[in-house]
Description:
By secondary structure, this protein is of the alpha+beta class.
Amino acid sequence: MTAWLPDETTLHHGDGPYREADVFAVLREHAGSQTAQVTAAGAAWLASATAYPRSALSQWESHPSAPGVLPCGSAFDVVNVPTLFGRRMLEHLWADGPGSGPVATHRGRMLLFASPGTAQRLPSLLDWEEWGSGPASRPERDPLRQDGSGRKVPPLLCHGTGDAVTVPPLTCGPNASGPRWLVAPDTRSPWLPGPDVLLWACVRVARSVPSSGPRISIFPPADQGAKVYDVSRRR
């Protein structure tokens, strides 16, 4: 299942410089024109979520600036959270954890791409730890889980097998409206967080309070010569 949504900035095959171009040439031409740019390898990974990857890439060639709809459950699941909560999750994931997979924003929500199976397991883990919204949750047992608006872990929308999500276009200008990539896919095999990592991030956000103490990481110190990834450079 793949559907591409037309918009006013859609570039059709044969228009101007895109005549006889392929999706990889389009991406190379637009490289550096936006803060979060999908690479050719990233486009191939997104297309692998569909039943017909070559057809998906062909449609991207004709409509590189149009958002698309991709199925979940095979290449990835998606955890859909409110934007502010999602940004705080990313801060913890990149500061104290392993980082994140691809991340997009759409209609006031943040889409965190996760490993297949996460959509089924994460809500159960949240309920088991009594942070979720299911019948097993009892937020009144922990005052840290309540504020003026109720639970600090908002209801999450988890998209897995049988679901589909809107993904941002491959190319768009810095002031374009609509869905956008915050962390764009840039490899054919991106690392994707699983339910345990996202559970940790959710709980860290929910429990976070101003503190002058040092950060406590769930990961051992990195080697001094290891490459450091700064998510702020990829937004």
